[in-house]
Amino acid sequence: MLTNRQLFLNNLAQTSDSPLALEITKAEGIFIYDSSGKKYFDLISGISVSNTGHRHPAIVKAIKDQADQYLHLMVYGEYIQSTQVKLAGILSGLLPEKLNNCYFVNSGSEAVEGAMKLAKRYTGRKKIVAFKNAYHGSTQGALSIIGNESYQTPFAPLLPGIDHLDFNSTASLNQITTETACVIVEPVQGEAGIIIGTQDFLSALRTRCNETGTLLIFDEIQTGLGRTGYMFAFEKYGVIPDILLLAKGLGGGMPLGAFISSHEIMQMLTNNPVLGHITTFGGHPVSCAAALANIEVIINEQLIEGVAAKSNLFVQLLGKSKAISQIRSAGLMIALQLDNFAQVKNIIDYCIQKGVITDWFLFNDSSIRIAPPLTISEEQIREACRIILESLDKNS
Fold first, then answer.
1. Above 80 in pLDDT, residue 217?
2. Do 208 and 354 sit in the same domain of this protein?
3. How far apart are CA 318 and CA 347, in angstroms?
4. I want to staple 181 with a disulfide (CB 3.0 to 4.6 A). Which of 118, 123, 234, 256 is the partner?
5. Angle between helices 82-94 and 285-300 (to 10 degrees)
6. pLDDT at residue 5, as a whole number
7. Same domain, yes or no, for 152 and 275?
8. 156 and 140 in one domain?
9. Any idea what the Cα angle at residue 350 is, between residues 347 and 354, rounded to 5°?
10. CB atoms within 10 A of CB 147
11. CATH number reported for the structural domain that contains residue 349 in this entry
């Protein structure tokens, strides 16, 4: 009989030549466990997904309770489903008044795709502005707006009419014109290695979009739901987008994304044509139930209030290593800048051997990613950093 490892390699599509191939049998809190029973600190949270940790009891209970009522019923938007409407209501209550209408999907890429369609439909324009080194997903439309040609070229031709500007460059914003349907931006560029948007840049971007009648889309797929020390990163800047994108940390470990706008803008999907955007499984009732519990945990356990201190502790402890040339952080999105990918890979591999999971970034392979669950304790941070420092010492 073939082992799970053999079946994994034979029958599951691979996305790299050397997958981690850890055979996971359990996850709890900030830890995951492999088939031998070995425990690992999960310092990447499934890439900023498990903000409240793995299998939080309140989220597991919400999933079970919803499964006892009903699963999928009908394509999104046709039936009134309690978990969907409650979740939309809670999100609307957490957001500024003009972000009051939610469209739930299955993933971040789908949220991006829906927002692009919505912007084109509302403005009647065809051009889109994005930024170099931005990551927005891997579907055809989302791939068209990411800011890295090496990921795009093998799949060309992609969508036309996309301009990529320099991130944090106010001088480039005059390229946004009355022909631009939307600008999509990450307030913190995740896959570029935690590059933080400046206040001047994001404020100027909002002003330029106002001047040209262009919709401003904030991609908060990684930054949303407390990751940066705010429920939503835009709150730090006082810059309100016209469309907000969420996913990853939204579902508490279940697949869920959303694009959120005003009722006026979102209504454009209801006619000419009718059903202008459709998803079968988007807003799945179990995922929405998990998201409701997830938000309650973030608020009730005051997880956001602890992010800054935990981030500072990581920076303080890891800053002792001379191998790290720079530490960039936006809350619990942290990048450790090293010299090259070979060094990064050696450290990641050593840490895995010692029971700590870290990662690199798609568009910055000379930096190490740290993005643990917001529930991580000070004691756990100290132990994880001890192992990382040991790895840095042995592999630098």
1. yes
2. no
3. 13
4. 123
5. 40
6. 77
7. yes
8. yes
9. 130
10. 23
11. 3.90.1150.10
Clarify whether residues 316 and 360 are in a common domain.
yes
Measured between alpha carbons, how far is 283 from 211 in angstroms, rounded to an integer? 34
Q: 156: Cβ–Cβ under 8 A, 6 or more apart, which residues?
A: none
Q: Whole domain around residue 190: which residue ranges?
A: 60-300
Residue 221 burial (C-beta neighbours within 10 Å; 0-12, 13-18, 19+): buried
pLDDT the model gives residue 234: 98
Query: Is 101 in the same domain as 235?
Result: yes
CA distance 395 to 293: 42
For the cut 90, the answer to whether the pLDDT of residue 15 exceeds it is no
Q: Give the span between the Cα atoms of 185 and 158, in whole angstroms.
A: 19
Least confident of 23-27, 52-56, 148-152, 273-277: 273-277
* CA atoms in the 13 A half-sphere facing the CB of 205: 32
Q: Tens of pLDDT along 361-382?
A: 999 999 999 999 999 999 999 9
Domain closes at, from 300, 335, 359: 300
3-state secondary structure 220-231: CCCCCCCCCCCC
The predicted pLDDT at position 199 comes to: 98
User: Do 277 and 335 fall within a single domain?
Assistant: no
Question: Does 351 lie in the same domain as 270?
Answer: no
* Final residue in a domain of this structure, among 267, 285, 300: 300
